[in-house]
Fold:
Amino acid sequence: MMMTGTVGSSVMGRSRNAQPLPRSGKSVSSVRRPVAMHAKLPKWDECYRFLVDEKKLRTIAPEQAKDMVASGDWVLVDVRPPGAHAEARPAGAVSVPMYQPLDWKTPDVQKVMKFLVYSFNGVQAIEPNPDFTEQLRQASMQGKRGIITFCEAGGTLKPSTNFPFGKPSRSLQAAYRALAEGVTSEVLHLERGVYGWYQSDLDFEGTGEYKPDIGRTPSAAAEPTLESIRASTGYQMREGDKK
Structure:
């Protein structure tokens, strides 16, 4: 039976011969949208080439992800902030947040300035989670389980005219780190993130009800400046999507 919650608790297993499936195709008002401080990652085009050309990262549909997790071979890894995870999450997901609220135990001028700027814009300033890699290792049971990363909207590796390197997201960043830092070689990416899970009418858990925050981008971690956040389209909308 699948265990849920923050990493550190038990997670589902995965057999070493499990193969990734082919690529297919809440945010809630009570939780302020977090904006990440600059994370030490390569530029997105470098991450993209690593994920697509070298690692052949696959994106799977929510229905596929549900079946893979149910098999006991894979675990859903929620890289959103803990508050969003607690409020509403895909059933069975564990929390491994990429970012955390600013740590005021070690204040500096840069943190104060960022806090003021982000507060003025109505968003919460956050910084990289220093334990992210180790928590990923726990989620994968030291590489013995496959992980399926997801965030709010997921981003995409599909190139387009306006976005030749797809659209970055926290879940794609997490997949990059899991592969680049040798956490596990078995990594998949959830198509359209929590929003896609919601559109697929799959089960949720949590203290509240999931409702997408259309109009604001949920993938701020990929582009940690207010300008790029505003420029992002966020959710991948499709005809027939429910509100």
In short: The radius of gyration is 17 Å.
